[in-house]
Amino acid sequence: MKATTRLKFLVYPLLLLFLAVGCNSANKTDKSSNSTEGVGIETKKEQGQAFIENDESTPNVLQIAIGSQDHTTLVAAVQAADLENALVNAGPLMVFAPTNDAFAALPEGTVENLLKPENKDALANILKHHVTPGNYSKDFLKKFKKLGQANGQDALIEVKGEDVYVGGAKILGSVSAGNGIVHVVDKVILPPSEE
Amino acid sequence: MKKIYYVIGGLLGATLLYMGCNQAAGPNTSGALASSAAEKVYVAPGEQDEFYAFLSGGYSGNLTVYGLPSGRMFKEIPVFSQFPTSGYGYSEETKPMLNTSFGFVPWDDLHHPDISQTNGELDGRWVFVNGNNTPRIARISLETFETEEIIEIPNSAGNHSSAFITENTEYVIAGTRFAVPVPQRDMPIDQYKGNFKGALSFISVDPETGRLDLKFQVLMPGFNYDLSHPGRGKSHGWHFFSTYNTEEANTLMEVNSSQNDKDFIAAINWQKIEEYVNNGGGEKMATNYAHNVYSHETHTGTSTMKKEVVTVDPTKVPDAVFFLPTPKSPHGCDVDPSGEYIIGSGKLSADLTVHSFTKMLAAIEGKKFDGEAYGIPILSFDDVMAGIVKSGGLGPLHTEFDARGNAYTTFFISSEVVKWRLETWDVVDRKPTFYSVGHLMIPGGNSRKPFGKYVVAMNKITKDRYLPTGPEMEHSAQIYDISGEKMELIYDFPTHGEPHYAAGCPAELLASKSKKIYRLDENKHPYAVTNPSEARVERNGNEVHVYMSTIRSHFTPDNIEGVKVGDKVYFHITNHEQDFDVPHGFSIIGQNTSELLIMPGQTKTSVWEPKQVGVWPFYCTDFCSALHQEMQGYVRVSPANSNIDLSWSLGGE
To answer: Which of B251-260, B396-405, B493-502 has the lowest mean pLDDT?
Structure first.
């Protein structure tokens, strides 16, 4: 499949990025322990709720995304932006999850660019614009005019027949999660530019 | 499917490599780090902690006392909940403490402790706490560490923006979270909007005795008043409340109360309203609430029902009440040590909104209004806002301060404490919490003089922090050293119940004045026996009163006969010990209540209603002495129609 091929291109550079980040942060630890400060317990990036072994609970929004072959780009982006722990929070969280095709539809090079470490904040901002504190079914969303997203901006809701659009992206399907709900959407919801 | 495994496998592989990489650099550094952190929190056996910390117990209904930096728990102080450990709420003397207009309510949801202040600095006389569910405020003595007073708050529901005290402990302030009809009446729920009220209560505190008096209630529009803090220094005389649900929705609040982009922080000039009330302003409203006071002389609580409250319509007091627009359903409402900045934490947002007190006064002066709500002026946002903290976190809740111009804010969703600078609003550090932090506490961190050495983060979620104990776990807390530029995580400890907030102070403020015993010669309990020779048993119809004393290692009397099935037996027990830390306990087989734990010099009463004929033992529940096991006695219970005379003895005499 086309998406899968694309995915490999995305994921493997990302893995390398992980390796680089890992070794960097170990170096950082060294530096800080040499100073007079820095005596506290260091915590690693993968010390958090996202990394607790738990096969008894209903999968959370992050685990659902990880388990979906249509969302590998999204998962890679979430990991690059260090948002794993936020997504396993008690929430409740409503995640609008663009498919791999949705990411692929962005202008050439956009995703690759966002995944660069220097663009981490911009990436995080876009991803947070896909998250609402709340847990509402697609049907229930029809009652809203807008949603206040986790990045501080609003996403508008439109209803066209039976379809619900959030920030211009159409909800394709929904999966209940242990800490909220995942609505699969067909477009990346870009935050409105700040006036 | 194969492809998924491929990807996950790849990720796992990367994780392993990542960890391997860390480990390579790890052992030496993390070992050294861990030992330095250990030194910071290690309080050697026999040594004492630097700070007291009073953590709310949330749904335990009680207050817990901890030491910092060790994280050791010293005491659970029963406040709103029955506590079998000491017999609080079970003994006849303490049952009145839990009386309300709804009758005996043996539980509450204890939220926010605040230590009394003088000139905006902690003075360590009392700690005040709020009961959220059946609205109540309690005052706890910091000499006896016992609950001395509980006052119910009428016209209130979900007493959440409480119990915060003004900078000379003039008032303890209690705002309602849930708006309700005032006075309560039978009406359709969907007529909430415009009809329900939010009562903000100002309870005066007697400067000598600490005695509480509900001085007045400001009847505000029916918003939800979430949290509050007093002005201090330049803003002394004002009190600030965060609000949400300015939409006045009455159903599906999680949607309907998040429609407005901005809610308000309500600024209340209580000094103006106090003056108005002192000059005869306000309206007396008939009501009904309990006021319960415990006396350390009689060792007894007394409950009095009050029937009237002064209510104030905020629109009738000129220039006393204003709204400051604040984005995204603000939760925390915190005031910095100088009193200049009021910080609203929009809990559905990433940002903090900081208002300036100076700008607020200027905006009031210049009438920079942006409309009004129910006759209360709304100040223009741009004219009161001092800055926005772009935190990068998610779900800000609460802010505390050190004395060096730094503020520390908790973020629930991103699970972290973020340190930022006042005035520049720059984020300077952030540290993860484990997990999903609610409140945080710096000793004195909400006063004019914070002791900015440690911050305690109180988390809502524990998961894997400690050895697993099934689905239900205690919450976790982390201690960070904040004396340097960067916060240092130094310790992690479980807390009891659900701490919603805490108050801390230097140990020396309290330690030297903590009471050791109650003096027997000052005991004014009506059923006390101050000398064993006065010990006796008296019958009054089917009531039997046992005047009993205890000393190592016997009860006087320890043999009682003539009690009958159907009697109601009151054991009034006075502990004759006058030595530090020698309590005695009392329990008797089949009693339908808890034991008693009686401190030296104290009298407590337990009721026993024997239902079966026989000879029934009672004993001391506290390992009081080497002969503790011998500290027991018997009650002979005869049939209801028996004519055995009442008798009592010790050693056959």
So the answer is: B251-260
User: Does the distance separating the beta carbons of A15 and B14 come in below 8 Å?
Assistant: yes
- Is pLDDT at B387 greater than 50 in this prediction? yes
Q: CA nearest B479 in A: which residue?
A: A40
The tens digit of pLDDT for each residue in B439-475 reads 999 999 999 999 999 999 999 999 999 999 999 999 9
Of A69, A91, A151, the CB nearest to B350: A151
Whether the CB of A44 is below 8 Å from some CB of chain B: the reply is yes
Domain spans of chain A, in order of start: 2-27+58-185
Q: Residue A20: pLDDT above 80?
A: no
CATH code of the region A2-27+58-185? 2.30.180.10
**A vs B: CB pairs below 8 A:** 148
Window from A142-156, B397-411, B587-601 with minimum mean pLDDT: A142-156
Q: Is A20 on the interface with B (CB under 8 A)?
A: no
DSSP B108: -
Residues β-bridged to residue A104: none
Chain A CB contacts of B36 below 8 Å: 39
What is the longest distance spanned by two Cα atoms in chain B? 90
Q: What is the DSSP letter of B58?
A: B
B602 closest CA partner among B586, B591, B590, B618: B586
For residue A136, what is the nearest residue in chain B, using CA coordinates? Answer: B255
The pLDDT of residue A194: 64
CA B630 – CA B625 distance, rounded (Å): 10
Q: Which among A26, A37, A46 has CB closest to B485?
A: A37
pTM: 0.89
**DSSP-derived secondary structure letter, B651:** T
Tokens for B59?
């749904």
Q: How confident is the model at residue B232 (pLDDT cuts 50, 70, 90)?
A: very high
| A21-49 pLDDT tens trace | 333 333 333 333 333 456 788 877 677 78
- State residue A8's pLDDT score: 42
ipTM of the complex: 0.76
Residues 129-148 of A with CB under 8 A from B: 133-134, 136, 143-144, 148
Which of B15, B350, B415 minimises the CB distance to A46?
B15
Q: How far is CA A43 from the centre of its chain?
A: 22
The C-alpha atoms of residue B142 and residue B188 are separated, in whole angstroms, by 45
- Tell me the C-alpha distance between B497 and B511, whole Å: 25
User: pLDDT-based confidence at A176, cuts 50/70/90?
Assistant: very high
Of A69, A90, A151, which is closest to B3 when you measure between CB atoms?
A69
- Ordered by where they begin, the domains of chain B are 51-513 (2.130.10.10), 520-649 (2.60.40.420)
- Say whether B348 and A40 touch across the interface (CB within 8 A): no
Q: Rounded mean pLDDT of chain B?
A: 93
B33, A144: Cβ pair inside 8 Å? no
